[in-house]
Amino acid sequence: MKKMNKLFSLIALAAIFVLTGCIDETFPESETATQEQVSASPTAFEASLRGIPAKMVEGYLVYGEQTHETDMAYPQFMLAQTEMLGDMFPGGDPGYDWYQSYNVLNRDFGDNTYFAYLPWFTLYKFVKYANGCIAAVDLDDPNTSDDIKGMVGQAYAARAFDYYMLMVLYEPVENIYTDVSKVKGLTVPIVTEKTTGEEAKNNPRASHEDMVKFILSDLDLAEQLLSGGYVPSSKSLPDLSVVYGLKAKVYMWDKDYANAAKYARMAINLATQNGAAPMTATEWEDPTSAFSVATSGWMWYLHYDAENMRNLANWTGWISPEAQWSYAQLYLPCIDKSLYDRIAPTDFRKRVFVHPDRYKYYNYKTSMGSTWLNDVAPDYCALKFRCVSGDCNDYATGGASDVPVMRIEEMYLLEAEAVGASQGIEAGMALLNNFMQTYRDPKYNYVNKDNNLRNFQLEVLTQERIEFWGEGNAFPNAKRLKPDVIQNYNGTNAPTDNYKINCEGIKPNWNLVISIYELNSNRALRGLNNPNPTKTVTGPTPVNEFAPGNN
């Protein structure tokens, strides 16, 4: 890509925080309310709490200025996870695909790169802000109201999600390309509102078991605090249904399928009770609002405010090829052809990706007009994410979008796999077929003649990859299942040889590397980093063959 992959400059490093160096002060006093302020006015705490979703879409969150274009807070993970899956390719100029290092393996992905630095410090910045909100309230104070307790519950849920993301991205999965034996079963250091600066300097990677226990304890407390009558004013922070959904996701990663199924169903029931429903075909295809304006089934979503958003570091500008103010118009994000081919013609989701026959295949709706779709949009170009109000030119209008974090569809698909794994494939297939036939494709009918659990799990994963293309939510389940990644096949739309790689199990870069700046500050991590996956696989891999392993 153009002008990227450079090492950090000393000047830039001097301007940014290091995790262990910012623990002593739980959070800047100007950004969170104190206990005294909370007691005097609950609105002070509510204002601080709103900072959590605001930080999650803050452009250049880590550096504070335009340094690297993947510094996009939460949306960077949506793109990174989709690229790691191999489900997204640039149909335009690959040089503008700043996220391609998550997709290919020939670019530097080691501990001294942006791709080690930004994911780590983004998520720990989220943790730090949640810790500040948690520390501001004494839950044992009799003057603490149920509303304040409910808001603290939201902060605990947000922190649990942050650690879930860290666990999924940094807990290594075995593969044939890198040796993870030294770090197998390790996640990341746990930093709470009580962690001191000295403790942070010698803070080991928590084991898988300890991290799951910690996250579930946060979610248990969030559940308790959100059950006291507090009614959230918006879906920009987790409510009780999201807490159940997060429990389902954590149990799924832990392969505790019975509890995953239990909490997915609880999330569905409560969200449905609150008016949630899966998105319709009309909502998927609306050229003025599809995946840019929240619908009832978006259980948790973020929002860009026009007043403080950036023209380049915003979600719509990165994911919508119709947006004419940022990078998507240049690299033109497309779905992997093999995944597109898995979508049945009777499944309306196929219509948000451009068929090679264009208007002969379907009467596509685009705010850019038919000439653009015929002459500019490449085959398989993604029309899933639209500019707000169809405004493709003004980023302050078209980019002031909502951003999904959890949709009810995720719970339906998660429940289907979890039930199949814990109660029998027939029960899981019934749930999958019911969801698909009711909400996506009336002619869908999955049959597993061999009663093979893995084949069923991979079918659910395929539907998740289609459903959450561009959102990234399928990645944790893929990493858990190790489905193989095939990007070089006959007819592939991978644009260049470095994208044309086939990996057995997982790509080795699915295990992110910890930044050298954290390693240098936390002595407990030294010698315990995830292995560098750079150049472990070289493209092109022979068509339909796996790259040879190194172990």
Furnish the topology, listing elements before pairings.
Layout: H1 10-14, H2 35-40, H3 42-49, H4 51-56, H5 75-84, E1 88-90, H6 114-135, H7 146-170, H8 197-200, H9 208-226, H10 240-253, H11 257-273, H12 281-285, E2 298-303, H13 315-319, H14 328-331, E3 333-335, H15 337-341, H16 370-375, H17 395-398, E4 402-407, H18 408-423, H19 425-439, H20 453-467, H21 475-481, E5 485-486, E6 502-503, H22 516-521
Antiparallel strand pairs: 1-3, 2-4, 5-6
Please provide a written account of the structure.
The chain has 551 residues and is mostly helical. The protein folds into 2 domains: 19-231 and 490-551, Serine Threonine Protein Phosphatase 5, Tetratricopeptide repeat; 258-483, Serine Threonine Protein Phosphatase 5, Tetratricopeptide repeat, CATH 1.25.40. Helix content is 41%, strand content 4%. The strands form 3 sheets. It has a two-stranded antiparallel sheet with strand order 1-3. A two-stranded antiparallel ribbon has the order 2-4. The protein has a two-stranded antiparallel sheet with strand order 5-6. Helix 7 packs antiparallel against helix 9 and helix 20 (453-467) runs antiparallel to helix 21 (475-481). The longest helix has 25 residues, at 146-170. The two termini are 30 Å apart.
